[in-house]
Design a protein that fits this description.
The strands form seven sheets. The chain has a nine-stranded mixed sheet with strand order 2-9-8-7-18-11-14-15-17, with helices on one face. Helix 1 packs across helix 2. It is built from eight helices and 26 strands. The protein is globular and about 80 Å long. The termini are far apart. By secondary structure, the protein is an alpha+beta fold. The chain has two domains: about 220 residues, L,D-transpeptidase catalytic domain-like (Beta Barrel), CATH 2.40.440.10; about 70 residues, 2-Layer Sandwich (Alpha-Beta Plaits), CATH 3.30.70. Keywords: Cell shape, Cell wall biogenesis/degradation, Glycosyltransferase, Hydrolase, Peptidoglycan synthesis, Transferase. Pathway: Cell wall biogenesis; peptidoglycan biosynthesis.
Length: about 400
């Protein structure tokens, strides 16, 4: 199994049932929060489901586990949960969003000091990127209506998908159940009906959160809260006197400039501490870009500070938010999404369909040697089944075929 740099991981401590994933205390002088964890996958798990359960985006869990199949990972495989984060290099107040890490940080104070809540986000595409800069929460809305921008309506029209002028609250609304409108016109922090897109460059410029996360953020964020959006792929931080580096794949056309910035910062830290940093390790961390904080100071052989603490987390019996496929029914409509020659490919396609938003239930039905049907359904009526055919074509370029209910004799 490939993980974060092997020489940087301590053996996991004994199994524990839970691990903190969203709310952390920030000690004075520290920039690193959280703990890396290891979990063992079970049959039928997907990385998007594990990511959501543990408060991660698909970008983070994929980068930390290169080579692991996103949709059909091997049962029994241990994977890294990158639940340790270096805070962005920015004032710690209000909301700070790092586009490069696809992570939101909400800073606040309590009786014991500073606390940060952190959530994964989906961000804008290369064609419609999320803007950086200072903003504020201008207003908030529960159960928002989506007023479709003309540019988005035009894009869908070109695909043969005619959108209405507005979409009321409900499962078809891409804003989800809560929205925070930013002072920069047209940009929101909101929920989603496509949870598997969290941790992807998949929006039209807005920032989307898991439904459960946006509910919490909505409640804890008053109007006029400052919002700062940055893009920092290379993060440097300290914890307990140790310097860490966390590297992510930079966004378009920013890699060289960001490397220069972080190199200059690391040189200053060398002078500050009067000791060398491990530049060979630094180069490896930057090249691998696995999104895991790694200690980069030069230590003597066997020094525990040269490695990252990990904990073993027990896989829960139920993965929060994982799609559940209803049992087969003879009286229902179905859609033959595809006929696939390899079981793994069929299971992968079924998993992708299951994670569409809104959900489309799908399963694999073996048809004999080297033949597997990927079936979507059950659907209660032909109208819902035809809508599934339309969405499979629009979103996945699949030519679905309607399957009528079995007629009673």
């Amino acid at each position: 199994m490939q993980r974060a740099p092997e020489q940087s991981l301590q053996p996991p401590v004994p199994m524990q049932n839970e691990i903190e994933r969203n709310v952390f205390s920030v000690a004075d002088g520290d920039d690193v929060i959280g703990t890396l964890a290891v979990v063992r996958l079970d049959n039928g798990d997907t990385l998007p489901d594990i990511a959501r359960h543990f408060g991660l985006g698909i970008n983070a869990i994929s980068a930390a586990n290169p080579g692991v199949d996103v949709w059909v990972p091997e049962p029994g495989k241990e994977i890294i949960l990158p639940l340790s984060f270096i805070l962005p290099d920015a004032p710690r107040k209000g909301i700070v969003i790092n586009l490069a890490t696809m992570r939101l940080f909400r800073f606040k104070e309590d009786s014991k000091g500073q606390v940060v809540s952190t959530y994964p986000v989906g961000v804008g595409t290369a064609e419609r990127p999320t803007p950086t800069g200072k903003m504020r929460v201008e207003r908030k809305t529960a159960l928002p209506t989506w007023y479709v921008p003309a540019s988005i309506a035009e894009d869908h029209k070109k695909k043969g998908d005619l959108l209405p002028a507005k979409v009321p609250p409900g499962p078809e609304n891409p804003l989800g159940e809560r929205a925070l409108y930013l002072s920069k016109a047209g940009y929101l922090i909101h929920g989603t009906n496509k949870p598997a897109s969290i941790g992807l460059k998949a929006t039209n410029g807005c920032l989307r959160l898991y439904p459960e996360n946006v509910m919490t953020l909505y409640e804890e964020t008053p109007v006029n809260t400052p919002v700062l959006i940055v893009s920092q792929p290379y993060l440097v931080g300290e914890r307990d006197g140790v310097v860490y580096l966390e590297a992510h794949a930079p966004l378009e056309n920013s890699g060289a400039q960001e490397l220069e910035k972080v190199t200059a910062k690391l040189r200053k830290l060398e002078k500050k501490y009067g000791r060398n940093l491990d530049w060979k390790k630094i180069g490896k961390v930057q090249a691998e870009a696995r999104g895991v904080p790694v200690p980069i100071m030069v230590f003597g052989a066997g020094n525990a500070k040269d490695s990252v603490k990990t904990v073993n987390v027990e896989r829960p019996l139920r993965i929060f938010g994982a799609p559940e496929v209803p049992e087969l029914r003879l009286d229902a409509w179905y859609v033959l999404a595809a006929n696939v020659g390899h079981e793994i490919e069929a299971r992968r396609l079924a998993a992708i369909i299951n994670h569409q938003g809104p959900p489309i239930p799908a399963r694999v039905l073996p048809q004999g040697s080297n033949s597997y049907h990927v079936i979507a359904g059950p659907f209660d009526n032909v109208g819902v089944a035809k809508e599934a055919v339309r969405r499979l074509k629009l979103d996945l370029e699949l030519n679905g075929i309607l399957i009528d209910p079995v007629k009673k004799i």
